[in-house]
Design a protein that fits this description.
Structural class: alpha+beta
Radius of gyration: 20 Å
Bound molecules: zinc ion
Oligomer: single chain
Order of helices and strands: EEEHEEHHHEEHEHHH
Strand order of the largest sheet: 1-2-3-5-4
Shape: elongated
Number of helices: 8
Distance between the termini: 52 Å
Number of strands: 8
Strand content: 15-25%
């Protein structure tokens, strides 16, 4: 079996049979891959915390051609990101980022996706309680963008007329972004979004600027993102981590 050595991030992990663990990895060289870690539960010493959620390191996989589950030969950990488990806001946001990467990342190498996810998890690991939601939103939009679905936010998505940054606008999921007043008549189902919401997303995507969202704004942003994912990336399966991320905070409040 060929050996694949690659940077990898553990984005899902569960126990398998009595002694093993199955992990789903985002790898730098080969996109999303799944691997069986034999004996990982019996001898904790072999992997330590390397196979815990959100850990990153250098993985070696014995690749079985045309099979979905490979064998893990080794994992040398470089970052545990254990801080993500210490706060529910950090954890649910990180889980949502992981879900998007696993669901839509594919098996081809995508270095920008790898780096975006790694940076997002690093940032969430040190995110203050009041910023986890915004940091999660920024991370998700960046992931969506490197997957090729950057929303149009400066000009009309249909006729390309530039729109003033200070104006509220209609966001049309079907059209892939904001639309001008005349095109909005051709794009039913659009949602009016305030200028501030548009500039917040632009800030996250282009300049790493924070928007310091209020709770209602953050809630509206989660809804907008959910609708956008539904229009452009969704398959038949619900996004369960996203649902937990969206509902946990508001039901606890
Ligand atoms: Zn237009």
């Amino acid at each position: 079996m060929p050996l694949l050595a690659t940077d990898a991030i553990v984005l899902h992990a569960f126990d398998y049979l009595e002694s093993s663990r199955i992990i789903r990895l985002l790898t730098r060289e080969s996109g999303v891959q799944s691997a069986l870690a034999r004996g990982a539960r019996k001898s904790r010493g072999r992997y330590g915390t390397a196979l815990d959620l959100f850990a990153e390191g250098s993985a070696q996989l014995y690749v079985k051609p045309n099979r979905e589950l490979h064998n893990l030969a080794g994992f040398e950990i470089s970052s545990t990101r254990s801080e993500l488990a210490e706060d529910v806001g950090r954890f649910t946001a990180a889980s949502t980022v992981a879900e998007l990467a696993l669901r839509f990342g594919g098996e081809e190498a995508n270095e920008p996706l790898y780096d975006t996810v790694a940076n997002a998890l690093d940032r969430l690991a040190v995110s203050a309680a009041e910023s986890t939601l915004e940091d999660g939103l920024a991370a998700c939009w960046r992931v969506v963008s490197v997957l090729g679905f950057t929303p149009e936010l400066s000009s009309c998505a249909l006729c390309h007329t530039p729109l003033r940054a200070s104006d509220d606008a209609t966001f049309s999921h079907a059209s892939g972004g904001i639309v001008c007043p005349s095109c909005s008549r051709l794009a039913p189902g659009g949602r009016r979004i305030p200028a501030a919401a548009r500039s917040a997303i632009l800030g996250w995507l282009e300049s790493d600027e924070a928007a310091s969202l209020s709770e209602p704004e953050a809630r509206s942003h989660q809804r907008l993102l959910r609708e956008f994912l539904g229009a452009h990336l969704a398959d038949d399966r619900p996004l369960r981590a996203f649902a937990v991320w969206e509902h946990e905070r508001w039901s606890a409040a």
